[in-house]
Amino acid sequence: MESLLLKNCGIVVTQNSDRKILKNIDVLIEEGKIKEIGKNISQNADEVLDCSKKLVMPALFNAHTHASMVLMRGYRDDQELHAWLSDVWKVEAKLKPKHIYAGALFACMEMAKTGTCCFVDMYFEMEEVAKAVSEIGMKAFLGYGMIDLFNEEKREREIKRTKKFIESVRGKYQGIEPVLAPHAIYTCSKELLEWVNEFAKERNLLKTIHLSETRKEVFDCIKEHGVRPVEYLEKLGFLDENTVIFHGSWVSKREIEILSKYGTKAVHCPASNMKLATGGAFPMREYLQAGVNVCIGTDGACSNNSLDMFREMKFCALLQKWYRWNGIELTAQQTLDLATVNPAKCFGLNSGSIEPGKEADLALIDLEHYSMKPLLNPVSNLVYSATGNCVRDLLVAGNFVVRDGKLANAKEEKIVEVFEKAVEDLFK
Question: Which alpha helices (H) appear in 207-308, and where do they start and end?
């Protein structure tokens, strides 16, 4: 479809620089991009969609997850972190490419149907994840999770696997970009991190890594290297504007200043961190005051149990208010930014807001849904009362990925059937 006219949109949450909210307005999309926003656009489009009972907003961006872990949703809940990890690793040891594919396809379905257009993923057999993303029609930044456990032979295998994945994906799929994804400083050797750093510069790739997620990680790093985790990566020359850290809750003010100095980005996963009781709360105020670009993500559905970014926005805002004893600590508008404009800037996407020239990555929300009434403050409704159940349509680069609540490019019944067989095979 070359052109689409969203006619008489009830509400448009633009997320532009002025954060304007428009009413009863038309949005014209041509060749995947927003061409015009205005009243009574008379352009002859290939399709005209009545949006009088819909809210149009930038689609959401899940900045950190492990999509295929949806296979383990509900497995070993209500456990202490390290006991939980031990059990999860036993299941992961049985994962085959067919399981990864089935899980990724199901996760993409859940994310798309709840308004997410793009996600950042770290896992194994990532060629299977790329295939699933492409079939659904989403965007993604995918990284093979590198773990060498300080073993030289394993390190060489991880490097070969990473190179193979990047060669198999880069330029092959529209909307999918490979990233480098060393798992963490406690599972990756100094030599592996140095290789990642050099290879990233050579190939102009983003680097993603779990960092400072738990107090134990911090204390172990100090014991092993004499410095805190952020300082350790700085010593390695690892930090730069192409680096994204996941979690980053256990950081000092000095470490935040270091991240800001290098233009490094941070991704907060509130629900997962609270559920696993990793301790403390993400120091959002300090990050934002330092000018660090902060995004939010769900983490995997095994530690969150949901991939719904609407729920994640609410958790994010409430955690900060609770942590600071301050009802205005993180506003609904600031929180919406963390899932739209911030990740678009972080990952170099020409979207995240509704403006002429931007790619049409849009979520269309049902204004008749009970959680959207009354509509005294649209942004407040989106962050505090809405869930992904409100989403009726999802456009990615102007193409329907979800239409009238159903996937546009794949049969949901088949996805569920394959997924359930994969779960049965893993847990039989």
Answer: 215-225, 229-235, 253-262, 270-275, 284-289
d(CA 163, CA 143): 11
Which segments of the chain have a pLDDT < 70? 1
CA–CA separation, 286 vs 194, rounded Å? 29
- Burial class of residue 325 in the structure, from the number of CB atoms within 10 Å of its CB (0-12 exposed, 13-18 middle, 19+ buried): exposed
Tokens linked to 244: 């994204």
- State residue 157's pLDDT score: 98
Q: Contact, 62 vs 120, CB < 8 A? A: yes
Distance, CA of 412 to CA of 416 (rounded, Å)? 6
Q: d(Cα 83, Cα 76) in Å, to the nearest integer?
A: 9
CA distance 132 to 103: 9
Long-range CB contacts (< 8 A, 24+ apart) of 203-206?
203/166, 204/242, 205/166, 205/178, 205/179, 205/180, 205/242, 206/141, 206/177, 206/179, 206/180, 206/242, 206/243, 206/244, 206/347
Return the ∠ at Cα 205 (arms to 303 and 178), rounded to 5°: 55
Residue with tokens 């670009």: 293
Collapse the DSSP code of 89 into the 3-class scheme (helix H, G, I; strand E, B; otherwise coil) and give the result.
helix
Tokens for 173? 């799929």
Alpha-carbon torsion (352, 353, 359, 360), positive or negative: positive
Strand, helix or coil at 361?
coil
Tokens describing residue 172: 């092959």
Euclidean distance between CA atoms 140 and 134, whole angstroms: 9
Give yes or no for a cis peptide into 229 (omega within 30° of 0): no
Give the number of C-alpha atoms closer than 13 A to the C-alpha of residue 107, restricted to the C-beta side.
39
b/e per residue 351-360 (b: at least 16 CB within 10 A): bbbbbeebbb
Residue listed under structure tokens 């993400």: 282
Residue located via tokens 């490097």: 159
- Return the bridge partners of 120, or none: 141
Check if the beta carbon of residue 215 is closer than 8 Å to that of residue 233: no
58: nearest Cα among 117, 135, 126, 101: 117
Per-residue HEC secondary structure of 61-80 comes to EEEEECHHHHHHCCCCCCCC
Secondary structure element (H or E) that encloses residue 181, with its range? strand 176-182
